[in-house]
């Protein structure tokens, strides 16, 4: 049985994953809200919850870097391919994180660039 505070923290993690998913459809607007929430909560938790928040924060910032590279390389014709790869990468990380959070399992390596 989870206590109320832990349950609330898990809800926040799940909400951030949901905001990230919506962010893909809204050009990142909802993802921006999600990363702000993740940053605000990051120092207040530890353990399994922290692994998810770190993973979420890195997903956002690595995604931004990938999107910038994609936009800058449109002039040479590979930008759309890079942007597509970034969206697929983000979706995989969002789905993986959501499933792990649903199981109340940690992210094995929240610092990874991969999945």
Question: Would you kindly provide a written description of the structure presented here, covering whatever features stand out?
Answer:
It is found in: Membrane. Pfam families: MamF_MmsF (PF09685). This is DUF4870 domain-containing protein. There is one protein chain. Helix 1 runs antiparallel to helix 2, helix 1 packs parallel to helix 3 (48-72) and helix 3 (48-72) runs antiparallel to helix 4. This protein is mainly alpha-helical. The chain has 4 helices and no strands. Helices cover 74% and strands 0% of the residues. The chain has one domain (4-102).
Note the topology.
Blueprint: H1 4-25, H2 29-42, H3 48-72, H4 79-102
How would you summarize this macromolecular structure in one to three sentences?
This protein is mainly α and 115 residues long. It has four helices and no strands.
The tally of domains stands at 1
Please tally the helical runs, counting DSSP H or I stretches of 4 or more residues: 4
Question: Termini distance?
Answer: 30 Å
The global form is elongated
Summed over residues and divided by their number, the pLDDT gives a mean of 95
Structural class: mainly alpha
Overall radius of gyration: 15 Å
Q: Which percent range fits the helix content?
A: over 70%
Number of strands: 0
Q: Could you list the spans in which at least 5 consecutive residues all have pLDDT below 50?
A: none
The ordered H/E elements are: HHHH
Strand content: under 5%
Looking at this protein, list some descriptive labels:
115 residues; mainly alpha; 0% strand
